[in-house]
Amino acid sequence: MAVGDALGVPFESATREHMLINPVTDSMIENRRKSHHWNHVLKEAGLFSDDTSMALCLAASLIRRHGFNAYDIFVRFKWWVKHNYMSSTGKLVFVWQTLKRQVDEFEQRQKAYADEHQMTIEQVEQMVSTIPSEPETVASDSALMRLAPIPLFFYRSPKEAVHYSGESCRLTFEQNGKLAIDICRYYGALIVAALHGEKKEELLHNNFYERKFQLGWFGNEQLHEDVLKVAHGSYKKSGGYDEGIRGTMNGIIVLEAALWTF
To answer: Which of 27-36, 188-197, 250-259 is modeled with the greatest confidence?
Structure first.
């Protein structure tokens, strides 16, 4: 994940037309890195972006708490934003303003709780759960890009893996963002199935979702209709880009592009 992120950073925002006339070479990557809008912090090879930093926050919390703990995860998101925790550069590379605002408000609630109960911030942060975050809507592919630690951690229990893949999305998305949540649930199921040894043909089968639903992986909650379209093969377009496959920040379009590429 971190390797893929580091390799992809220089090409963020690169157009298809640019890539067609500029094949990827070492010198081309170096030039892109120097001219990239993040070049002041990600100018060295191997440095990863905010997406991997947030994924590492998730992974560290899962290991530390032996499971999914929304409060602890958000504490680590705060450490990342405020103290460069899990940064590849020692600096905050980038953060969405909506998430930055969430972190600021979360920190204020922590301070108020600490004052009320005569505790230090460090003591408040070691609690299992106390001050929930208040999700807002942010760019709809960000939860998908940091998702991997969840299904990796819970893969022995597919139902939990799928459930917490969705719950991880709620950390930074509005509570009723069913589409964003279900994108993560479906993608989490694909990762779990891959870890269970299923072949590519099985993962991409148009009935993958129905089979897993019957096995209880998705509980009793059906996927959003837009995610169902992807699960049923909407991305299977031989023309690729010419038929609408794109790399954007829209979660559904990103999901289609990832599966088309796979």
So the answer is: 188-197
What token pair was written down for 64? 């530390």
> What is the model's pTM?
0.87
Q: Cβ-count burial of 164 within 10 angstroms (0-12 exposed, 13-18 middle, 19+ buried)?
A: buried
The DSSP code for 223 is: P
SS3 198: coil
Structural domain count of the chain: 1
Phi-psi region of 233 (alpha: psi -120 to 50; beta: other; left: phi over 0): left
pLDDT for residue 199 = 98
Classify residue 196: in a domain, yes or no. yes
- The answer to whether residue 114 is domain-embedded is no
Q: What whole-number distance in Å separates Cα of residue 72 and Cα of residue 181?
A: 20
Strands (DSSP E) contained in 127-225 are none
Contact 73, 129 (CB under 8 A): no
